[in-house]
Amino acid sequence: MDNEQKKAALEAILFTMGDAVDEERLAAAVEITTEEVTMLMTELIADYESRNHGIMIMRVGNKYQMCTKVTYYETLIKLCHVPQKHVLTDTLLETLSIIAYKQPITRMEVEAIRGVRCDYAINTLIDYHLICELGRLDAPGRPILFGTTDDFLRSFGVSSLEELPIISTEKVEQFKEEAEEEAVIQV
Questions:
Q1: Which residues of 118-157 are buried (b: 16+ CB within 10 A; e: fewer)?
Q2: Model-level pTM greater than 0.85?
Q3: Staple partner for 134: which of 65, 70, 125, 147, CB 3.0–4.6 Å?
């Protein structure tokens, strides 16, 4: 198989699967190395970006997924009529941020950081497929550990957690001061 046929095979797999497929599975299916998969997928991504297509290939960590371009969302709404657009409130964003930066993390650890109960926020984020259970902590009670999903990465336009913005220590101190001032005002 030449490189064009391999790219076509990879494209067919992504189209058929619908979900993100990791490099190892792609390599096994096409009978090539993961390095070749990375090279060919980089070419495919560039091919889709260079032409006026309604779809694109997105890299999410070590996985690839074929999806529609955001610019065509409004057109898709007209056909689907019931778009699933979730609204992230400040509470949900705050909880999601804590989980994204501290994962794997338990509900109790999130609550300790936020200072309030987080059951509703965590359950809603699970329903939105932005976080998931990663396992259980090896501690008394075996609390559930939470982390972000591939949908989280796609929703925020990043391919890995390393691409999340780094918050400076000065900004953290500013946030602490603002939170303390708010706590004094509310008392």
A1: beebbebbeebebbbeeeebeeeeeebbbbbbbebbbbee
A2: no
A3: 147
Tokens of 48: 């889709």
Bridge partners of 106, per DSSP, are: 145
Instruction: Note the pLDDT tens digit of each residue in 71-90.
Output: 888 888 777 765 566 788 98
pLDDT in tens, 132-164: 999 999 989 899 999 999 989 888 888 888 888
Residues 6+ apart with CB under 8 A from 19: 65
CA-wise closest residue to 134 among 98, 173, 96, 99: 99
- Work out the end-to-end distance of the chain between its first and last CA atoms, rounded to an integer number of angstroms: 71
